[in-house]
User: Which sequence fits this backbone?
């Protein structure tokens, strides 16, 4: 299919450069406005993650997800769903992202087929190795820096974990997560990531478009210097 090429590592590496993750409860204003401006600022991938205090459920969640999905489709931005394979399939999402505690990556792969992107969170080398063997197309590694956003977040790992994964031969695309903003994005990429995923740096920005642009410039410059 048309989107199958997005799974290719070279393509995915570029799509992971500025990866916005959000749900309604991360937004200070209308989520559709936030996503519109973030897309205008050049985000390269989007994940719908409706979790934590104040998260939408049921029909409201489905309706918002559907609207954001259509916005991504119109702008050619891959739309990924956090954790929920049923929702991903119902929306014809471009991929699914799961944590270590979620449905096993092998089972998710079986359900989403060969055309959709599978992302898996990994906090350390053992988790990264397992995720790759179970069919992850990319890894989300972190929290690298401390974050207020995830209620059950582990402590910040620092950038050494990225260096270790690359030195130990983890070759799939990696996106850093946790406390990332335009001021530290370049060092995340220099440590071995292909790009950065952010919630607050865009959703809480005074200007979401400028925030996305700044992240984009920082990542591009660091990736080009490689
Ligand atoms: N997983 C690890 S840290 C985190 C998630 C979902 C939250 C990242 O949010 P922020 O606001 O970019 O630190
Ligand atoms: Mg999860």
Assistant:
């Amino acid at each position: 299919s048309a989107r199958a090429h997005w799974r290719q590592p070279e393509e995915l590496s570029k799509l992971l450069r500025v990866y916005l993750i959000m749900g309604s409860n991360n937004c200070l204003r209308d989520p559709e406005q936030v996503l519109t401006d973030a897309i205008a600022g050049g985000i390269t991938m989007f994940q719908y993650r409706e979790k934590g205090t104040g998260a939408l459920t049921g029909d409201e969640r489905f309706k918002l997800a559907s609207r954001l999905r259509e916005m991504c489709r119109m702008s050619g931005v891959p739309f990924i769903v956090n954790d929920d394979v049923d929702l991903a399939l119902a929306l014809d999402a471009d991929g699914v992202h799961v944590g270590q505690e979620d449905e096993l990556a092998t089972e998710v792969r079986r359900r989403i087929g060969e055309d959709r992107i599978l992302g898996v969170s990994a906090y350390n080398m053992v988790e990264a190795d397992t995720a790759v063997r179970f069919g992850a197309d990319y890894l989300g590694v972190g929290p690298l820096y401390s974050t207020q956003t995830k209620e059950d977040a582990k402590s910040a790992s620092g950038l050494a974990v990225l260096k270790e994964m690359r030195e130990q031969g983890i070759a799939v695309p990696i996106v850093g997560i946790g406390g990332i903003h335009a001021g530290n994005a370049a060092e995340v990429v220099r440590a071995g990531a292909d790009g950065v995923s952010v919630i607050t740096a865009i959703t809480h920005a005074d200007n979401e478009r400028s925030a996305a642009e700044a992240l984009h410039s920082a990542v591009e410059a660091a990736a080009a210097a490689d």
